[in-house]
């Protein structure tokens, strides 16, 4: 197993490098870079993309800067901006310098926020941890017992109506469900039971311990519920199908012939085999929710998390934030893939990736 882990760790390097090369190359062809953004604002254009789409600004002739919005500004000022942001260097040199810094976990400083990328990510982390952790845990806590029950009572009225409810829940987009929750329970049109903004109330630091915990769960109830609905449906059906496959196997028939009770058969024999796929996917599911948390849900509930950070950085062409978070999240995602394989082995020691390799 050690050799397999070593091979996987060595594969992380070229994979991560490929991800960064592709994304860095794409940004070289995307209009509206950070300098264009600054110049457009200084010229009173508001947004550089208005000039690009409207065609009202003309690109300067040869010998002058080709940045849209540069008209009327001295070339020396533009050249100074280029030096400040590092755009006076060739793309290859900029990429190599960036990767060298990232190898030392130096992600630089945001162009527009005057804060280091690492501090910025840590600042937004509580929201993403909240949505990712609680949504994943709640989905597993509900889906596994429900999926087992549906497998045991396959074809019954209970299985039929719960399947209908699950399909309806899965069909409703998370953001639409979030709007429904706001309308019903956050003062939209009916009851004002839950708050609409933030992760905690003002003055939370001065609350007692119990009050802090209750206030925290009071704020996260609706956004977590909205982000859980799709994962809940998928996990329930996956659990049911896994158990149905195992229940039909010969060893279950043998256990029943020996007179073992249904509960002992399910949780003493079937559970470990049936939950292999479900439980081993926990790390990947958590990372997916954690890093890919719904931007719309964060926006609707005024939660300033990594989803909004990534979107705003992409729009503003804040490249240190875009590439720094991309590098860190890609690295974590690749490591989680290795942890997922280790989880398979932990649940079922019969799996031997090294023998397969």
From TrEMBL:
Location of this chain's protein in the cell: Cell inner membrane; Cell membrane
UniProt keyword list: Cell inner membrane, Cell membrane, Membrane, Transmembrane, Transmembrane helix, Transport
Domain of life: Bacteria
Ranges where the ABC transmembrane type-1 domain occurs: 125-344
Topological type in the membrane: Multi-pass membrane protein
GO cellular component: plasma membrane
Keyword Signal: no
CDD domains xrefs: TM_PBP2
Alphabetical GO biological process terms: microcin transport; transmembrane transport
Cited InterPro entries: MetI-like (IPR000515), MetI-like_sf (IPR035906)
TM region(s), chain numbering: 9-30, 127-148, 160-186, 216-239, 274-301, 321-347
Family recorded in the similarity comment: Belongs to the binding-protein-dependent transport system permease family.
Protein name: Inner membrane ABC transporter permease protein YejB
Native organism: Roseisalinus antarcticus
